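ERR on first pass: missing label on line 2. Operator R.T. fixed the label and resubmitted. Corrected input:
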Amino acid sequence: MFSNRSIFAAAPLAVAASLAQAQISDGVVKIGVLSDMSSLYSDIGGGGSVVAARMAIADFPTKGIKVELLSADHLNKPDVGSSIARQWYDVDKVDVIVDVPTSSVALAINQITREKGKAFLVSGAASSDLTGKACSPNTIHWTYDTWMLANGTGNAIVKTGGDSWYFITADYAFGLALERDTEAVVLKNGGKVLGKVRHPLNAQDFSSFLLQAQASKAKIIGLANAGGDTTNAIKQAAEFGIVKGGQNLAGLLVFLSDIHGLGLDKAQGLIFTETFYWDLNDQTRAFARRFAAANSGKYPTMVQAGVYSAITHYLKAVEAGKTDDGTKVIAKMKELPTDDPLFGKGRVRIDGRKLHPAYLVEVKKPSESKGPYDYYKIRATIPAEQAFRPLNEGGCSLVK
Amino acid sequence: MEIFGIPTQALFGQLLIGLINGSFYALLSLGLAVIFGLLNIINFTHGAQYMMGAFCAYFLLTKLGIGYWWALAVTPLAVGIIGMVIERLMLARLYKLDHLYGLLLTFGLALIIQGLFRNEYGTSGIPYALPQELSGGRNLGFMFLPNYRAWVILASIVVCLATWFMIEKTRLGAYLRAATENPQLVQAFGINVPRMITLTYGFGVALAAFAGVMAAPIYQVNPLMGADLIIVVFAVVVIGGMGSIMGSIVTGFALGLIEGLTKVFYPEASNTVIFIIMAIVLMIKPAGLFGTQR
Amino acid sequence: MSAVHELAPRAGGFAHQRIAAAVMIAFFALAPLVAYPVFLMKVMCFALFACAFNLLIGYGGLLSFGHAMFLGTAGYASAHAAKAWGFPPEFAILFGTACSALLGFVTGLLAIRRQGIYFAMITLALAQMVYFFYLQAPFTGGEDGIQAVPRGKLFGLLDLNNVWAMYALVFAVFVGGFLLIHRAVHSPFGQVLKAIRENEARALSLGYDVNRYKLLAYVLSATLAGLAGATKVLVFELASLTDVHWTMSGEVVLMVLLGGLGTVFGPVVGALIIISMENYLAQIGSWVTVVQGVIFVICVLTFRRGVIGELGRLIGKPL
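pass 2 clean. output:
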């Protein structure tokens, strides 16, 4: 009824319908990219996710499967997102929904997808509950989650000497979860948490909180927030000479687009974890160049790369299983190992968690950067099996 | 030495920060207070105009190479002119109607302006550098004060007092105040009342844009920067008294201090405290602390 | 607000309104055969919300800028009752509505004493406080909201997971709420309200306890807004912060303004247009706010009577 369609028909040399057609519902695999196109996370996912999806479909050697792409804006609202999801599943016969930044929307869609037996590939949302207490046989959580962020960043920083922490946390469920997970990691590794301050969501001015963080003399100031809060805090930290005064900032959820918005001048020295960076190897670089050409020059964030990777693997599973029934495809995706140019080799666990390596990155100084988007130094690589929460700790009912 | 568990040194630091923020609030609410106080228009577009000011400074820098200091002068003019055009073309038609229509119109305009900028520029924000002359800071002993923040206090106080003086103490201000109380009479005296109204609106908008330029180096320049701020600014103006310029200035500073203290003792409530105060003031003295009922 | 005065319903001559009502009922009864039922249920819930808001501004002359607090409060209360306490749907909805009524009473006591812009600002301040409370209260789940709210069995018999059963319930709630408002407006209470709106001093001098009438209108409006919110939560099985955010308060103003302030059917039409627009424009989601803003501006400048208001003027009878 209302979505943006781009039809990618395979161009099979063989005219005869393959066996695959018979069990694909309506003869078409319909993929819906549901993202935040206009608000807080539009640069992290948004239109770029649609670009990534198109590329994934175009790159896949379709061999007789017809694929259609739809996209819509969920405006970061769970009710808008769930309306669109219901309509897509019931009326437009969409088979799989991809991306969905904003955990609240993702959790709602997770529920609906399960009810209707379709498939859901989460790239944008962070909540580790998606593979924990809300886990579902119809959902795979790609790209990243809060546990990985907390552990990747927390672990690595404490091991390299950042053993006293002060948290500046956004006072809402996501921020608190991030703070709680990171604190647990810091304490487990022998570090100390010297204090924390909670700020209201979308606080413009962080001077007061930064002052408190400075007074605590903690070596590391952990920013348990996201988006505009993180960038504002970082910008003002530079103003107040926090880094010059000897303390370091640890961003717990930061994306390439945030660094681009801040500028290296303010963001230099920031340490955080991501699962994809365009400058890792030749394949990622080639992807990034093609992506940027289709996306007004903006380079891919890990969320957008995750969309590409998830769809690639999905189509592989559809082809192998010769069906687009949601529950069956997800099961197939867990069976097949993954191998794509962006995330390398990995696999999908029984609880729906996609495993791939994570990278601890540090933002370069302006003098070290050779061009736009050349922002990160890779400080460490965390192997796939260690980067994510152990299977038995999540409380997922699918794990026996 | 400690007061309520916070060492005095840290407390002074927080109070100073509160003062700095307060001066910013005062500056920001000034434009709104002028427009409501003199024209009885509730300018919901204020937040979007503040954002336009910040973006204008950014454009001047990146497209024309005009730096911060010139931007402080040019931006208010540019955005003010846009404001005057809005007033002439749209707001002027609503004066004979209930004032709530003005609110709705400016609300709609704010949606349009913010939506357009957001389409174009996304929401991650755009960097705008601190001007060289004001970067760095000095260590005051109890805290490190960035030079730019000191400049914010200074500029705010100067602009606020100058505006208050102009409106309350000069003849031009007297004409303005008279024109809004009794436009027909003042028009009969030969003063072009519609033009004065347009200029006043433009002036209020220019003040918003000026605050935007001041904000650009320290807050991320992004299309939504005015959206949540507008409600707070409204609260300041309502508490101060919707007819009173001095009321808004004093309330702005006071709010900064109160918010600063809240951030130390109970930071989660620092967003709500202003609304609690606003609700209380409205119930006891709806005209505001310094205002006169209309 | 002055535009409303031209459309005061006259005694007698209600035949056209009955026809319009029949059209509306037939539309909502038959439309699910061709359109997506969940979409229509959303429209009906918002139409009820808009009608409740219209009661306050169109007939009471009071612009509330915080009506979202009633939609959201009932939503959260109802969702929590259904999910955590296991209330059956009819009690969950009643509980949610009752909570909104209570909130309406308390905020009304605080806000009613002021008028015009001050009233609007108080309601805004109160709504913001309610928003921040819900943002932090653990039972609401913060920005996750209360998810997976069970629809349950209506009266223990009708399984609401069946979309037609749910639709029937929402339809009944909507029509019931609409008729209740209509009844209230055309009762002696409604007449006094109209008198107060047109000349409060005179009504006061005639001996009417003006504040009591305004409070009653306010609480009624809050209660029905709550009814809409509680029902909506069962439709979507989700209660979220969106419903208490101040932009939701702005949206309902837009719906009523577009449909026609103070008209009987205006809010329904306004809700239908706005919700449809959001649905259709979801693909170009970034333009939705711009389009809403443009509609606001156009309505305020040249289209103050709204769709139904203009239609009413065309046929010469109030709608």
